[in-house]
Write a structure and sequence with these properties.
36% of the residues are buried. β2 and β3 form a beta hairpin. This protein is globular. α18 runs antiparallel to α20 and α25 packs across α27. By secondary structure, the protein is α+β, with helices and mostly antiparallel strands. The longest helix has 35 residues. The strands form 9 sheets. The protein has a 5-stranded antiparallel β-sheet. Strands 15-20-17-18-22 form a 5-stranded antiparallel β-sheet, with helices on one face. Strands 7-12-9-10 form a 4-stranded antiparallel β-sheet, with no helix packed on it. The chain contains 28 helices and 30 strands. The termini are far apart.
């Protein structure tokens, strides 16, 4: 077991003995040149009562001890060997285990690639069995300080390129199987590992094809027909259908045609995000025919960049979707939460569940909206929202600014925050491009305890849940974010599969955590085969396949048919009140009892909706059971009543039961239809609060329009409002569903003549303003009414259910009384 040396003198001696970072302890005029950095890194420093650092520890490992393990996500610490030696092993399928590939020499660093590239460890590093090793473990926050050192900064860049080249060659060797170690060595000698930023052009259409390019990490856009202006491709795509475009991710190879005699690039390739590539000169490859042939044959197999296939037209539906996925960076999330807005009923249960589990919601139902084809080349569009919640990025920006290292990547690959070391500075929150990190009081107010009766009433309450108070504190804050519900009762130790409170408590299955490169088929098809499975996302894509939901539907439909047919057959054969054989049972008794059991089972759904902090099965399956059991109970109890409605009490019971069924069926219809209409007219998904706020703003704008011009006032009151605030214009929003931009353009055109007849330019401007505001207001009204419709059925359903239950209890008492008498 390793042990840590805490003696400051020995730590300084260890730093001084390593050429890579000895500048940290160099002195000038008797003072440390980097005194402040040294203090923070080696000892730690207090800032306004909060300790920052230390980031360095001196560790001694014994014989055979493992320091890092291949495949683990360990992007928070790297190491420098101070004394001794270390063996480097990789998993080799040919030998069926670990194979030693090299040794770490004294003074060399290792493990930094996991930090810099956001990748799992690429090797296992172990102390030899006959020795021990002394190493410096250095935390991620120290990197930005150590980079100031000239030797370390230069060595880090060189090491990154060296390891990047070695890792790329290793990946290629494992993927192809066609390269001998000798050929891989020759390839490493002529290849160069390079890193490019966004918008860098790596080749231009029509220029000499002088190198082959392998994409190790990142995204590249290939385009044809953009000429010398590839930066304007996005704008040109919207107006020029002759532009051909596609996107390529890691594992693809560009320029292979150069090995078959092609002399010019037939496309322009532009980097869309930070991208790592391996460049190999065509001339050097052609000078080694054996290497060139092996290279061509192997790379052609696993790269999807087939140059014999023409690029897609820019108007294809998948191109804009993938472009947005890459541009926003969500495609590189390692565990992405997505919401299918055609399934989302805007109930807010996901945010509520997150709040119940963590004490504050870490999920905001705003974010990045993607309209994408359901399948490649499909005309059906899926509206996906990536809400403002942690993506657990492969290369997270939030980690770069944390001064204490409180936020980091855990061994499972997820990004999380250690509350004990977080000082509440907010750097991570400001760095996150997805607004996924919130600052909350470190010591929140104790929750108000509720009586059992209060909790029961809340189960059946129709009131909107009270929102938690806004955070107004500025002192003693703590950064919080999605931690995939780790360390909560939802995921106790030893759990085989991960559960997420938001996904578990979505009643329609709209939310799911996914690997984005698998979920977005347009991206999966752009990634080379050797890099398609690098993710730590857990779970099944229920938007694509949900076998348990299918089973619920099959069992539910079969149950309805079989019970209905069986009950009708039995009623005809035995009559409702005829005894079955020598028993006391009748068809009426059986249907009544089974129906009663069905109602009891149906009423468990409101109870399940209140369970947030433990596993009780996904709510979507409870809702399916609620629906099918309700239908079965309804049919059986209707058959139970027979042709006669009975007395007043029985008649009221049957009427209330009919109303429960009708209101429930109306609710199901709303859940199936309304979200799809909503997504087709709202553009980016909007919360109900956003819409009501926007409606008030538009009404205020209309009220403030200057109508001192009599002609303008008559136009606005007599035509504009009558036209755009009418019921027919409201229905148009649901029927035609045109984009808001097209709606406003047509609205302006309708009043073009009236505008021209106004003599005053200010009046013309006010008229157009009134037209646009009124048309927009009607669109907002339409969306608000849809939101309200999703909840409109609920009150009648709950009220009639309550009345039905009361009457049912009275009916049961009445039946038991008469039977007993």
């Amino acid at each position: 077991m390793s042990h840590q040396i805490t003696n400051h003198t020995k730590i300084l001696d260890a730093i001084r003995s390593v050429n890579l970072i000895d500048e940290l302890v160099e002195k000038r005029n008797g003072q440390f040149t980097y005194e402040l950095d040294l203090e923070v890194i080696a000892y730690g420093r207090n800032y306004t009562g909060k300790k920052v650092g230390p980031y360095l520890s001196l560790l001694v490992y014994g014989p055979g001890e493992e320091i890092i393990h291949e495949g683990q996500w360990g992007g928070n610490t790297f190491y420098i060997l101070v004394e001794g030696k270390l063996d480097v092993y990789i998993n080799d399928s040919e030998v069926g285990g670990l194979r030693k590939v090299s040794e770490v020499q004294q003074g060399r660093s290792f493990g930094e690639m996991s930090i810099l590239a956001g990748l799992p460890r690429n090797a296992t590093i172990v102390v030899p069995p006959d020795s021990e090793a002394k190493v410096l473990g250095i935390g991620r926050p120290a990197l930005r300080l150590l980079r100031k050192l000239p030797k370390f900064g230069g060595a880090l860049e060189a090491t990154y390129r060296e390891y990047g080249l070695a890792r790329t060659l290793q990946d290629l060797s494992q993927a192809s199987g066609a390269f001998s170690s000798e050929l891989m060595g020759r390839l490493g000698q002529i290849g160069a590992f390079r890193v490019f930023g966004k918008q860098h052009i790596i080749c231009r259409e029509g220029l000499i094809l002088d190198r082959v390019i392998f994409i190790k990490h990142g995204w590249v856009r290939r385009s044809q027909g953009t000429g010398l202006a590839p930066y304007t491709t996005d704008m040109m795509m919207e107006v020029d259908e002759d532009i051909n475009v596609d996107f390529l991710g890691a594992g693809n190879c560009l320029g292979l045609e150069g090995l078959r005699g092609e002399v010019k690039w037939n496309y322009t390739a532009t980097v869309l995000a930070r991208t790592e590539i391996l460049e190999i000169p065509v001339a050097a490859l052609l000078a080694d025919p054996q290497l060139a042939e092996s290279f061509y044959q192997s790379f052609s197999k696993f790269s999807v960049a087939d140059d014999d296939v023409p690029l897609e037209a820019a108007s294809e539906r998948g191109i804009p979707a993938l472009s947005k996925e890459i541009d926003t960076g969500i495609i590189d999330g390692t565990n992405l939460l997505v919401m299918d807005m055609d399934l989302c009923i805007r109930c807010g249960n996901c945010s509520l569940a997150c709040h119940k589990v963590h004490g504050q919601s870490r999920l905001l139902r705003r974010g990045i909206h993607i309209a994408r084809p359901v399948r490649p080349q499909s005309n059906s569009i899926q509206h996906v929202l990536s809400p403002e919640v942690c993506l657990h990025c492969q290369d997270p920006e939030c980690l770069t600014g944390c001064p204490t290292g409180a936020i980091g990547r855990l061994p499972g690959g997820q990004i999380d925050i250690e509350p004990k070391t977080c000082i509440g500075c907010g750097d991570c929150a400001t760095q996150c491009p997805y607004n996924a990190i919130s600052m909350v009081p470190r010591k929140p107010a104790a929750p108000h305890s509720q009586s059992f009766g209060t909790r029961i009433r809340q189960w059946f309450s129709l009131a909107t849940p009270t929102l938690p108070a806004a955070v107004t504190d500025t002192e003693d804050l703590l950064a919080v974010k999605c931690n995939l519900c780790n360390n909560t009762p939802l995921n106790p130790e030893g759990t085989k599969h991960q559960a997420y409170s938001c996904q578990e408590n979505c009643p329609t299955g709209a939310l799911v955590r996914v690997n984005p490169k698998e979920y977005f088929a347009e991206a999966r098809n752009a990634v080379g085969f050797i890099y398609q499975d690098q993710t730590h996302a857990i779970g099944r894509n229920i938007h694509k396949s949900d076998p348990l939901a299918k089973l619920c539907h099959i069992v539910g439909v079969l149950g309805i048919l079989l019970l209905t047919i069986g009950t009708v057959w039995a009623a005809r054969k035995y009559t409702l009140d005829g005894r079955l054989g020598d028993t006391w049972l009748t068809v009426r008794w059986i249907t009544g009892i089974v129906g009663l059991v069905g109602i009891a089972a149906v009423m468990t759904y409101p109870g399940r909706k209140q369970v947030f902090r433990r596993r009780a099965g996904p709510l979507r399956y409870w809702l399916l059971a609620h629906v099918y059991l309700g239908v079965i109970a309804g049919i059986l109890l209707l058959l139970h009543g027979g042709r006669s409605s009975g007395g007043l009490l029985t008649s009221m019971l049957m009427v209330s039961f009919d109303l429960v069924i009708l209101s429930g069926l109306f609710g199901i219809a709303c859940y199936l239809v309304v979200p799809r209409i909503m997504t087709s007219i709202e553009g980016d998904p909007l919360l109900f609060e956003d819409l009501t706020t926007r409606r008030e703003e538009l009404r205020q704008t209309l009220a403030e329009i200057d109508t001192s011009d009599n002609q303008l006032r008559r136009l606005i009151e007599g035509k504009v409002r009558r036209r755009f605030l009418s019921f027919s214009y409201l229905l148009r929003q649901y029927v035609r569903r045109e984009p808001l931009s097209a709606l406003l353009a047509e609205a302006r055109e309708e009043f073009e003549i009236e505008s021209a007849n106004l003599s005053d330019s200010d009046a013309r401007r006010e008229l157009i303003n009134a037209v646009e505001t009124s048309a927009t207001l009607r669109r907002v009204d339409a969306l608000i009414y849809l939101h309200q419709l999703l909840k409109l059925w609920l009150a009648p359903h709950v009220v009639t259910s309550a009345v039905m239950l009361v009457l049912l209890v009275v009916h049961i008492i009445q039946v038991v009384f008469f039977v007993a008498r």
